User: Fold this.
Amino acid sequence: MFPKLFAESGLSLDRLKALVEVGAAGSIVRASGGEPVKQSQYSRQIKELEDFFQTRLVERQGKGVRLTDRGKELARISRFFLLGLSNFQRGCLKEEQIYRIGAPPTFIKQVLLSVLADSRSVKTGIRYSVEAAGDDEIERRLHDLTLDFGVVVRSELSRPLQSKELATWNLKLWVPKELYKNTRHVLEAIKDGRLPWVLPSSEFPPRDDFTFEAGEPHLKCNNFIESQTTAQEQGLAMILPDFLPSPEPASAFVNVRIPSIQTQTFQYRLAWNPRLLRLNQHADRRREYLLESLVSKMRALSPPKAKSRSSRNTGK
Assistant:
């Protein structure tokens, strides 16, 4: 079986591993950790793979390298194969499984960490590695199988990725009363472009139909929690998801209802690559556990009004 594949030398697990690591790092220098001997080894191993398959696998990009289309295809096949071997080895040695989860920073802090630290999760003996990432990076890494699960805002993911809704949420505009004492004054400031507000740029849901009449933000932050902290310290207006606690003290802020903000509904979705489920027989149970636990946590954080709507829809 496979006589042509093994008729010549040049193909090995070490060489395939080198290609996977260089592709993930974006350069031979980063993949090797800056070690000259390892750099030379990686360069030689990839060249040997190119000679074996008689095709270009990497190409230069600035000071680094990137995989060619053929290189990406081989790296994907190799990663799939190596992960399968790794999972098989863990099972034989009865080692603990580590699941890698990517999610937005606010979701990690407000929802994910408390779920994974729950006693029901800890008692399983299964470990997790959590990384802050946006939709684009999560989608790419789910394809590459360098993440096992991801929490994303967008509903459309490229095939073969799959996802399932965890919760829907809305945005709220909070304005310090030291800026404007009531809704009328806030609306006038928005109309005149005078409202200083903070934009959580990396977490703000990308929507073509979303507009905020206040114009450009006074300040940009990375995520909702950072935005909330900065806005409260500096006395700026902030747009926050409704599952975050109201700014404190509540008497110092006014929640202004802006149709373009209040009517926008967003989702968090748990995403995965179905190839993972074929590679790891236990991953399906992890997926179901995460779905159940994260949905339950988001329901507990949802404002009462949102929960009452859900109850009416389910006939409770």
